[in-house]
Write a structure and sequence with these properties.
The chain is an all-alpha fold and about 110 residues long. Helices cover about 55% and strands about 0% of the residues. It has 4 helices and no strands. Helix 1 packs antiparallel against helix 2, helix 1 runs parallel beside helix 3 and helix 2 runs antiparallel to helix 3.
Length: about 110
C-alpha cells in the first residue's frame, strides 16, 4: 500500500505545486530544496507544525526560480553580422558541425570565425 495522502490543512496541493516548482529552480539548489520539501512533507504527515518550514521552503524556491529567470534573460543573443566574410558559409559550417565531432575553421583575421 502506498503512502497516505496528506490531508492536514490542505497542504497536499501546496506541496505538489512546490515539488513542481523545484524543477524550475537553479540546478545547484534542487537537491537542497528537495530535502527541504521532504522535511515539510514529513512534518505534515506527523501532524506537527510546519507553517514556518513551508514558508521558508516556498521563499527559497521562489528566490532560486527568480535567479534562474534573471540568468536566462541575460543570455546574449547570437547574431551573425552580414558584413563578415564567414557569414556566407554559415550553413556549410553548421552542416559540418552536425556531421563531425571535431571541426577546424580556418580564415583570415577579422573574418568572423
Amino acid at each position: 500500500m502506498g503512502p497516505k495522502p496528506l490531508i492536514y490543512r490542505g497542504v497536499t496541493s501546496d506541496l505538489d505545486q512546490l515539488a513542481r516548482d523545484i524543477g524550475r529552480t537553479m540546478l545547484r539548489d534542487r537537491r537542497r530544496l528537495r530535502v527541504g520539501w521532504n522535511k515539510v512533507r514529513q512534518l505534515a504527515r506527523a501532524r506537527k507544525p510546519f507553517d514556518r518550514s513551508l514558508a521558508r521552503l516556498a521563499a527559497a524556491i521562489d528566490a532560486s526560480g527568480r535567479l534562474l529567470a534573471a540568468r536566462r534573460d541575460q543570455v546574449p543573443q547570437v547574431s551573425f553580422p552580414e558584413d563578415l566574410p564567414i557569414t556566407a558559409h554559415r550553413d556549410q559550417i553548421i552542416d559540418a558541425i552536425r556531421r563531425h565531432q571535431v571541426l577546424i575553421v580556418c580564415g583570415d583575421t577579422g573574418s568572423g570565425k
